[in-house]
Write a structure and sequence with these properties.
129 residues, mainly beta, 3 helices, single chain, four-stranded antiparallel sheet
């Protein structure tokens, strides 16, 4: 059974909140009287964008979330796609591809190389993974 996890992009502070960070703040109350996890899930703080965990990992065992950018290396070269959640499933899309994520993962060496909000993975810091 897959874990149900989310991460959240804080648009105000330009910082990714990992599932671990969100869970650890469950009982930390702020001046508004609500814990971070409550504010994120109830949209009391409008500056958080939630991203669901797909339950799948890339070839390096890195978790794949909604809004991630993946690259595939196969006989056709390197092809970038974005992970989206649409029609009750995770899909990958670009100008030429629109298919379920689980089918895409069978096509070659798939790697998470960035996401919509932080940019390329080589720019990420340990606290934002």
């Amino acid at each position: 059974m897959n874990d149900i996890r989310v991460r959240a992009w804080d648009t105000e502070n330009k910082h990714m909140l990992s599932w671990l960070m969100i869970r650890q703040t469950a009982f930390n109350y702020n001046v508004e009287g609500y814990p971070l996890i409550y504010r994120i899930f109830t949209s009391l703080k409008e500056n958080h964008i939630l991203m669901l965990y797909s339950g799948l990992k890339d070839n390096q065992k890195f978790p794949i979330y909604e809004s991630d950018y993946l690259i595939i290396e196969n006989e056709e070269g390197i092809l970038p796609v974005e992970v989206i959640y649409e029609d009750a499933m995770f899909k990958v899309k670009n100008e030429n591809i629109d298919m379920p994520l689980f089918e895409f993962l069978k096509k070659g060496n798939i790697l998470v190389y960035g996401d919509k909000y932080r940019g390329f993975k080589h720019n990420w810091t340990e606290d934002t993974l």
